[in-house]
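Hello again, I could really use a second opinion on something today. I've been staring at a protein lately and its backbone has me curious. Can you walk me through what the tokens say about the fold? Take your time with it, there's no hurry, and the full record follows here:
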Amino acid sequence: MSKKNKKKLNLFSGIIGVIFNITLIIFSYLIINLDVLPTKYFSLLFSVLLIITFIFNLIIFIPKVKSKLKIGTDIFAILFSIVFGVGINYLYNTADFFNKITDSKYQVENYYVVVLDNGTYDNIKDLGNDNMGIFVSNTDTYKEAREKLLDKVKTKNKDYDDANKLANDLLKENVDAMFISETYKVALDEEVDEFKESTKIIDTISIKTENKDIVKDVKVTKEPFNIFVSGIDTYGKIANVSRSDVNMIMTVNPNTNEILLTSIPRDYYVQLNGTTGLKDKLTHAGIYGVDKSVKTLEDLFGIEINYYVRVNFTTLIDVVDVIGGIDVYSDATFVPWTDRTLKINKGMVHMDGKTALAFSRERYAYREGDRHRVKNQQDVITAIMNKILSSKTIISKYNSLLNTLDGSFQTNMDTKDLTSLIKKQLNDMSKWTITSQSVNGTDSSNYTYSYSKQKLYVMIPDMNTVTEATTKINEVLNKD
């Protein structure tokens, strides 16, 4: 090879060497910072990388090395740079995901201005001096939202303490518009005939508040702990305040690799923590923030809940679709009440996200109603966990899963706790035993703390089943 060509090759090799070293440094920094690799894998990986780096740099940056050897090394350096680049993408996405889901400092409560869909109002300014019905809420954010409303528009206001009466007055045109929180609006969509189809939202006021710190930290790789799993009844952002439709305590023992899922019916009639007088449905605790749900369940079971996880309907649909569906046994054939376009047959059913959500929400197809629904929810969660934890799924769908969960999954568990659990699993590669239980009760109707003017369906707790469930939770927690 001529001196001129040799010079060009050395220049090319130098550029490749710089790229190789830069990608290696970034990759190394991210993997150290993320801290998910067990020591034995970490040591092996970096020993190999140090040897490769020394050899590559020695060959690439020494001018007198034979051309064929230098070209061969350049090719390998390019391939390694590509591998590091892919690794950087995975590691960056992982770190970014952990930071987002553990950012649980704030919650958002939305308030809507609602009018009839066939009316003449398209904007809040159109209301002028017309009649506005305002639902007076027990939440801390209500006063701030009302003040912002008055800054936007001047109307003739009438206060209501009965959301259903307000909804019916709007439908009968006794008021021109209504002002109500998103949580109560969702409930009215379900409970008042034709309300959802006959109304529209013309303005939204969002109130951002700081979440209360309710973490009770433990060494998650060595000490058992409880997680409150809340499935909220919205399709929007995970930070939004909403009723908690799925209420589950996940008891995790990292020493015995056991997970116990304890489901509590959404309509359980309980005393909300910090309240007096009327009891309420457990699902309504979510209206006042996730901390209210956690503390209420701690009161009910007499246990300590260390962390919480919140997911919404969007999460379930997208996750199931990304992992290619799940297989769940249905013990009945039915058309789901939440989606009349579907039909779920009896037997083992391969479900996409839309079907899995409808299956999880179904209660009218079963004689036991909500009792059966919590069983279905446990089956769906178990199927998702088993599939995600399989090596084939977690590797092939890794980035897609992170992107899917972005914005629809939230926890107050610290990033370091999450990464330490991953590190332990990678080190042990242990199989987990997942079992489930649920508490029971008696069907009834009663006034509630959140809806004090009308009777709603509630489930009176069977305290024997609560005691039995508590015993099993403590058994898992106390195993060595």
In short: The first helix runs from residue 3 to 34. The two ends are 70 Å apart (CA to CA). DSSP finds 15 helices and 17 strands in the chain.
